[in-house]
Amino acid sequence: MIEDKNQQRTQLSDLGEFGLIDHLTKQFKIKQTSTVKGIGDDSAVLNFDNKKVVVTTDLLVEGVHFDLSYVPLKHLGYKAIMVNLSDVYAMNAKATQVTVSIAVSNRFPLEALEDLYAGIETAANIYNVDLIGGDTTSSNTGLLISVTAIGEIESDDVVYRSGAKPNDLLVVSGDLGGAYMGLQVLEREKEVYKVNPNSQPDLDGYSYIIERQLKPEARQDIIKLLKDLGVKPTSMIDVSDGLSSEIIHICKQSKVGCDLYEEKIPLDPQVISTCEEFNIDSTTVALNGGEDYELLFTISQDDFPKIKANPSISVIGFIKEEREGLHLVTRADTRIPIKAQGWKNFND
Ligand code: ADP
Ligand code: MG
Q1: What's the whole-number mean pLDDT along residues 118-122?
Q2: Which residues lie with the beta carbon below 6 Å from any ligand 1 atom?
Q3: Residue 237 CA, ligand 1 centroid: distance in Å
Q4: In angstroms, what CA-CA distances link 259 with 175, 292, 307, 328?
Q5: Which of 18, 138, 177, 218 has CA atoms 20 to 30 A from the CA of 110?
Q6: Is the pTM here over 0.85, yes or no?
């Protein structure tokens, strides 16, 4: 569908491992003062003075997490960084460094890896993180990308999943379900293309949700906004698997219950119209679709006046006592227990 029209194909073997690493990473600049030594020695060297350090890692596997028939490599590089930075921000930390490890088969020419690294570089520049190392090896099957992200934070500022208290407000940034519906559209167009390779993908009217799927943004801006507003969440998690499983994580780890209001779940109009077209319930998509990379957090009710006017933050429910359980309060005012249904790759 979105074919790699890049005609030039330089064999990876022409460069050798060291030539390849050097070629892909030479244009990356060090931006953080905490990076003492980046790429080029046996280890990177970092200096965080008295700050706490957060570390998170994710592995993306071709055919499981991404499909190169419709994911451009540049977007994949960008997204691989975003999914990790999102985990750093979910601790309320500032992201500072990343490492990128790849396993790649011979079917990829150098030009494909240049695209991947162009996406990584764009993300590193926009989010102000240094690429400080990685590993490069071959793969007999598909492409694998593992990113580790590092961040810094003052001890008192760390926000865990475990701090929610009864009567806190349950809050989410942005809107939900877009990435999942974008994936549905891309999968549909892939099927059309398989039947008729001359067909042009019909993606008009789906640009927002396709961008949510292919080029998500980690919510660094929300971390800054909360700091500026003087609001420290009592608990926080990023929405990678769908709202319901993230709510369950917060409630389990905080030993609390909650009421989530269906009518308060933020949905983009394009998500609503695409759900209608696919005949899928938009609340189900918000609850169980994945990859929105928004932040779900709880705040004390005292902080409500500070956030209430903000269009990028929605209050979607309340934290309750543990014994009251976790419920979705529907538009019809019925109470449905919230169950985990985050999309698990193991079930695919
Ligand atoms: P070693 O043999 O010590 O593992 P490598 O030859 O694998 O060293 O790596 C040399 C340098 O290049 C190291 O700084 C390493 O972190 C970095 N590096 C290797 N592969 C990548 C990659 N895919 N992306 C970014 N940096 C890399
Ligand atoms: Mg190595």
Answers
A1: 98
A2: 21, 25, 39-42, 100-102, 131, 133-136
A3: 31
A4: 19, 21, 20, 6
A5: 218
A6: yes
